[in-house]
Amino acid sequence: MLSIMGLTAKYGKYTSIKEVNIEVIKGEIVVLLGANGAGKSTTFKTISGLLKPAAGEIIFNDEQIGGKQPDKIVELGIVQCAEDRKLFPQMSVQQNLMMGAYVHRRNKGQIKQSLKEVNELFPILYDKREDAAGSLSGGQQQMLAIGRALMAKPKLMLLDEPSIGLAPLIVEQMFKSIEHINREGTTILLAEQNANAALSIADKGYVYENGKIVVHGSSAELFSNEEVRKAYIGA
């Protein structure tokens, strides 16, 4: 579904990621591991069209998308759920969800079905549909951010640090929700520092250090890699 080959991206003269290669097969959950500043979010921004590649290719369903406008990439089926959620805090939960459906604004039936699915996945969002998004707890805001992304009916969802700042019990619930979304047909590319939780649901992973991928393999291979365990799993 997604092939990234030799991807390099810069902020001005600073090279943030260099010669990154990633492959995501339809139906997979793939995790990007690494510390803050290692290059995971830059990779997402480049896939999403928020940052133009300095070199390399991004192929999505046999189409070159590197450098395309972000709205065109959303229309193709790639939707990003940002690390800091990027909600509209003064708008209601329902209004935030409807913003995610903008790409399908002419298909009222599709929007109604998507809203039903999101409310079934996260019932608390229905209960709080009239509340301001900014009044929600951190876990509820993350649910809303994921729900808004789902309203666009993505083929590939980019989830950037969905567990950050959340209590352990909420993190567990969040990863169960991600597994459910995947089972329902959405391919997931997940950037996470919580390696233990991420690898427990992922098919494979890539480990970033200083803007480069230094290790990649199946989840089982990364779990059994002593250096990965010491650096990211704490065992």
From TrEMBL:
Keyword Membrane assigned: no
Pfam families with a match to the protein in the record: ABC_tran
InterPro entries, per the entry: AAA+_ATPase, ABC_transporter-like_ATP-bd, ABC_transporter-like_CS, BCAA_Transport_ATP-bd_LivF, P-loop_NTPase
Keyword Metal-binding listed: no
The species this protein was found in: Cytobacillus horneckiae
Keyword entries, A-Z: Amino-acid transport, ATP-binding, Nucleotide-binding, Transport
CDD domains: ABC_TM1139_LivF_branched (cd03224)
UniProt similarity note: Belongs to the ABC transporter superfamily.
GO annotation, biological process: L-amino acid transport
Name this polypeptide is given: ABC transporter ATP-binding protein
Domain ABC transporter: 2-235
Molecular function per GO: ATP binding; ATP hydrolysis activity; branched-chain amino acid transmembrane transporter activity
Gene name for this UniProt entry: livF
Annotated PROSITE patterns: ABC_TRANSPORTER_1, ABC_TRANSPORTER_2
Record Gene3D superfamilies: P-loop containing nucleotide triphosphate hydrolases
